[in-house]
Amino acid sequence: MSETATKENLGKEVEKEETGPGHIRLRNRALILQAAEEVFAEQGYRGATTAAIAERAGLPKANVHYYFGTKETLYRAVLDDILALWLGELDRLTEDSDPAEALADYIKAKVVHSRERPLASRVYANEMIRGAKHTGDFLKNDLKSLVKRKSRVLESWVAQGKMEPIDPVHLFSVIWAATQHYADFEVQVAALVGRRQMTARDFDEAADTIVRMVLRGCGLHYGKAAE
Amino acid sequence: MSETATKENLGKEVEKEETGPGHIRLRNRALILQAAEEVFAEQGYRGATTAAIAERAGLPKANVHYYFGTKETLYRAVLDDILALWLGELDRLTEDSDPAEALADYIKAKVVHSRERPLASRVYANEMIRGAKHTGDFLKNDLKSLVKRKSRVLESWVAQGKMEPIDPVHLFSVIWAATQHYADFEVQVAALVGRRQMTARDFDEAADTIVRMVLRGCGLHYGKAAE
DNA sequence: CTAAAACCTGACCAATTGGTCAAAATTAAT
DNA sequence: ATTAATTTTGACCAATTGGTCAGGTTTTAG
């Protein structure tokens, strides 16, 4: 039952004991969430059918509705996993860390993320493009306050003379845009590098390019690989 | 009849004479294409219904099918307009132009584009996210050869000692990602800057930030507004 | 072992969807 | 003015969709 569950860990409801009360619920919910993420990423909200999700999860359609009620609820559950993931990524930016190192690490982690969980990125991108109708509060509350908190870190770096002043919102926007691009627009990038699928090396080069631009853009010394 | 047509010029079939043979065809096709771009951008391919497109165009649904046959054909027509637009943008990058100036101009033009035609950007983003199933040839032929051509321009700049070497594919990827982000993720950026809608000034600051990072990333002198 | 709780699912349904069509209305050409 | 070509559209259809439900099976608790 862990064909899918081991490949991509969806957090919460996975990797529990194989038996015991509720283990069926846990297993099937994880199965459905995984399938739903795939179908929502490939087809968009409206394009995803509960039948397709059920089929990919290897369960009858009625079972999907048994666990999640409506497609809307299921979509929000998928989104919740993704949003939680999104928020936990900025932890490495702290006041006393080295800006160049911290930013480089963050960018590289985001690129790894684009390679390993492109579907999550695509579901999120789809949601934003369509106006964040299921996510309004997340943006205005959680994400905004997180960015505000991290903005203070950047300001402290500037105050400590560690880097040049820069608008934090635009800095984060560029980082997110550039890194997530390699998940969301993978087909385009792959076509341009002349491969059907991008290699790990392609992703590394992408990360290096982004790190180079961001660090220099902040007046930071770009250490390795820059020559 | 030009309420929509004047606001956003869709190229081909607009701004013809008000009378004469075929003028109805021209007017209605433009009306439908405009409406279709809106609905496809907001709802995605599958989420867009021909009925919704027809309603927004102010025409009965059967009329939409009269002009475009199928939803698929209509979608491709919308996409064709956008792809043509995409290709025409890189003209200002030529061998004998100044790299800093040319790149800055290009980035600024792309950001203006994100502000003025966000719907086109969103339809395109949606198409890429879903795997470019209607656009495969464009990527592998048109876009790839264009990028190859422009890569030679960059190489010539490097050879002339005007800038540092950089992987062109990743450079373009970062530029496209960062600039289009302000159209595709407008709700997110707007939430972060604390506005419901971004202002012209927000877009200008975004462009400046991107220009600063890209130019410095290429070892170019970032002239104005950097300080 | 037994009863309750949890889980399963084929069959079904109302609503929506992309698309068709034939008859009517309008516009163009002679 | 007459004919031909184009345009319009309400009515219709088969297929798909999200969702329901009743009656079943399996799992769990005491």
TrEMBL record, chains A, B:
Biased composition annotated in UniProt, kind: Basic and acidic residues: 1-20
Stretches for region Disordered: 1-21
PROSITE patterns recorded: HTH_TETR_2
Pfam families reported for this sequence: TetR_C_3, TetR_N
Keywords: DNA-binding
DNA-binding region(s) in UniProt: 49-68
Domain of life from the UniProt record: Bacteria
One GO term of the biological process aspect: negative regulation of DNA-templated transcription
All copies of domain HTH tetR-type, residue ranges: 26-86
GO molecular function, one term: DNA binding
Name of protein: TetR family transcriptional regulator
Source species: Pelagibius litoralis
